[in-house]
């Protein structure tokens, strides 16, 4: 019998029997027929059809402000991120070589790693950058170390150097003296050499060999210079790095707007420079290229008073980066890292000044994240490249208003719903397996126009590990609107056990959601200690009832869940 037909039959049978069979403690089944959509979702998972490794490409995070790393809430969040991942998490941050006093500010950070004495002799000070890397390494995390930006003493246009940007100001105001090429390339080369040499001495050769390094950030926007200026900066930086540690892994170029024609020209010319051109630093042909990185961003907007997301630009950026990499033999198999992969472009732009960013506090962000990461895996399969990681440019903002609407994973030490999607991903292991949904938008539809149809995207991503399987299901739409729970019939085939223990993890308005609890408190900006404790508890990943033992019949398990709009569920099977 056709698998879809079988599942539909199971679905209607289960509507009558599931309440008695499983009980309402785990699943809610009492939904009226009149509320059901025209096309109920039917999901089929085949554990026998393994597709590819369930790579932890999600275990990468980043942020603009490096000095938040070792502050109170920064260290707390990094500990939580480390704990949720079964593999070391990679962390990327800007401004690791910027001159200043080490005090954090929005879209600003500094380490004072390089200054010069009165005679122009370099003075290296690794104290602050060490405190950043120490924080990672002590938690078993790895730097995705960004070589940049330009120290004040090396900048060709040092004044003004320190910017004082705030939300609502023009974005170009941040492009001060740190964004210029060096006035002395030999000193720039030696700076990187001494930095990497120091890291090897401090952390050990084996540890630093496990890191990734990349030069600059978005040179098509964050550099006052030409492509050739960037290539020269890159050549001298990688020369210094490889002199200190020949086995270090380095690349670039973390281009912005990857799908745009200009960005594609940058990327193609960068690859050609690294593989064919004369190296500015060595005079030899070619430059080190151990990884290729680029950025991918979506584009939300306001429609009336409603936020409308748009994942299509983000997915097109990813597809373009993968396509370019796959077109060169030198880049087809090296690690590809989406250096920033987000619903839009400015983490520090809160919803007060940018109302289209109002999606960030609640379940819109978490369901968008689930839906888009699944498509990243699809694109990696399509292009056959070495997809290593996708950096979620989302961290925390220290000492800022509660739930201000920054693109962050936590606010004042309280986790937001989006962080719980990553906790779900951390429970998926082994290999991805074939999983289909009658209500899942195709990859082409998502890349063309995101999720704008009359029905929501009820999608699925499934994995199979040793004595375990996991099925992630989401109910997503671009329009930021809540909706009633929809019934979903799930069939899991080829289960190699007579029984399983089923745990359902859930993110929705009543589970794993500190934001809804905060609003019910009256949205306090000075919550009491008791309220903070309640918010911290609400910010953790929660289950729908207790785990239950279920019998498997003929290696098949039929389940039913009701999932509200913007909800995400993870069905974890252990056997």
List descriptors:
ten-stranded mixed β-sheet, about 575 residues, 24 strands, Immunoglobulin-like, eight-stranded parallel barrel, alpha/beta, TIM Barrel, disordered N terminus, 13 helices
Largest sheet: 10 strands, mixed
The portion of residues forming beta strands comes to: 15-25%
| Highest CATH level, the class of the largest domain | Alpha Beta
What would you give as the CATH superfamily of the largest domain?
Glycosidases
| Total beta strand runs | 24
Radius of gyration, in Å, reads: 24 Å
User: What is the CATH-assigned architecture of the largest domain?
Assistant: Alpha-Beta Barrel
- What fold name goes in the CATH topology slot of the largest domain? TIM Barrel
Description:
Keywords: Glycosidase, Hydrolase. This is Xylan 1,4-beta-xylosidase. The protein has 575 residues and is of the alpha/beta class. The protein folds into two domains: 3-53 and 430-574, Sandwich (Immunoglobulin-like), CATH 2.60.40; 60-181 and 204-234 and 246-425, Alpha-Beta Barrel (TIM Barrel), CATH 3.20.20. It has 13 helices and 24 strands. Strands 1, 16, 17, 18, 19, 20, 21, 22, 23 and 24 form a ten-stranded mixed sheet that branches. Strand 7, helix 6 and strand 8 form a beta-alpha-beta unit. Helix 4 (185-203) runs parallel beside helix 6, helix 8 (312-326) runs parallel beside helix 9 and helix 12 (514-520) runs antiparallel to helix 13 (529-538). The protein is globular. The model is unreliable at 1-38 (pLDDT under 50).
